[in-house]
Amino acid sequence: MDQLKNKFRAARDTIAGIKSRTTVKIVVTAAFAALPIAHLFVLEWFSRGSFRGVLEFAEASPLAVGFDLILLYALFAAAFLAVRKMWAAAALSGAGTLLVSIINYVKFALRGEYFYPRDVVMFRSAGDMAGFGLMPLPLKAWLVIAAVLLSIALFAVFSYDLRVRFYVRLPLAAAVAGSVALFFSNAASAEGVFARFKLYYSSTNMQEYNYETNGFVAAFAINTALFGVTRPEGYSAAELSARLSAYPEEPAAAEFSAEKPDIIVVLSEAFWDPRLIPGTEFSRDPLAHFDRVSASPDSVSGQLLVSVMGGGTVRTEFEVLTGLNADALPTGVIVYDIVKGDIPSYVSRFRGMGYDTAALHTFKAGFYNRASVLPRLGFNAFYGVDELSRIDGVTLETKGGRAADSSFAEYVKYFMDKAGAPAFLFGISMENHGPYWGKYGRDGFDIETANPLLSESDLNALANYVQGTAHADEALGALADYVDARERPTVLVWFGDHLPYLSPNYSALLESGFISGATAPDDRLKLYSTPFVIHANFPLESDMLPASGAEVSTYNLLNAVCGAIGAGRSPFMSYLADLYASAPYYSSVLETDLPPETREKFTTQYYQTYHSITGN
Fold this sequence. Notes:
Radius of gyration: 28 Å
Structural class: alpha/beta
Shape: globular
């Protein structure tokens, strides 16, 4: 034991001798001071995917790099002042950098979206999100983990701690952190600082451009500054009122008022047409019921332009139910997190006409804050999976690890049969949610999918997605048959919220030739278009959409329904109908320019969105 103690003392004295050398002090201090530079490199490496991409970014955007380093050094200084020890500051900053880098990498690989400030808010739902998209960590993640652990060990051994009293350190740390927080709290003043580094708020109109041109840190910082809803330029309640005064209130038709039809609106999770993927063959048609229902003389069908890909259901949901446009909001924000009060919507309009309004979702009611917000849109009741599972007479089955679409259809029938007349029911399905690889392994398949153009893993994901789509299609067929058999006039509206994210980095869609990339306007139109069908058990008189091949944006879908059944329109809905005539199928995700007069028309919708969200 004494011999071991002597060896320990000798090692300690040797290290102390080494630490006392001026050269060592300089090297260790310089290495510690360079950590924020290393952190910036790691963040950009994970975001861009290659060393070369990081170097090209640094060469092309030196001012953005300068801003990034100022911000990272400020945060690093606050951490060091707070914890005092080099190894602790290295551990805190390294772990944070690694966590953010991996989240950004995984999210982009699975959903084609970068890490946004709103994702921090969504950590409260991390348990719900965990099963949605998991993938193995890349080799570089393990390399960075090893580097972080090594740096912590080295700074623990060769550490020159900050020798400043806590009553000086902690106020300084708070002052630095507070200054950073103050900077982000005022978007107007921050805008001037960003502009000095040639960073502009307008870049958030297209987040791929924002992150690629400005870099991950600066792009995230810009999104943070704009996280709250900013007042649109030129907005005032009086100006909005004046714009809408040009559009009259359109009264309901006499036929509608005589017997208001029941309305069923279904957001079918990731509902899309896999037959569009070149080279794909199926043992049976996965969308036979969709084609059958669409071909009915009492149906209208086509393509719905959505603004999300692979996820972000709530954005499509919000636009469809309200007629508002999330383009007016920061890209990274979850709209249900910023709703201040009641929002006029298609739902509240139907409730005002005497409809019994309800919503159901075969997932947790609190996810995306729906339990709090859906009543503000005009729903009298909202039922999540826990409430649904307690209903007698409907069995909640699971397929692919999710609540089955066959059960979802039964719940829709159950609530329609027990609702007061007239009824407006909104339902969100869950079965066909990703991830898709191996999804139906335990349940088996009743439809086979083949595509020689795809890798084994991509074909596995596609085959599982097709199985879920076939189940959704069967649920659509069952609900259409239910509508046709009802005595009361009834309308069924069925649509997909977004395309599936079948595999990392669009590989299944690229390998098959469905798209050539993810940036060309034609490819983006493919990536952001889902099928929809409006079906009724009585003749529809659509004043907006053709019977087939219709193209419409989310916010005008229920407006078209109102026109087809003669429900009348509010001034805002009449404005949206007029907007449809100029731009029937538009969203900022398409990256296409609009004529100035058409772009000006969208200003009214942006004003209405701001007014509805904030109440100002």
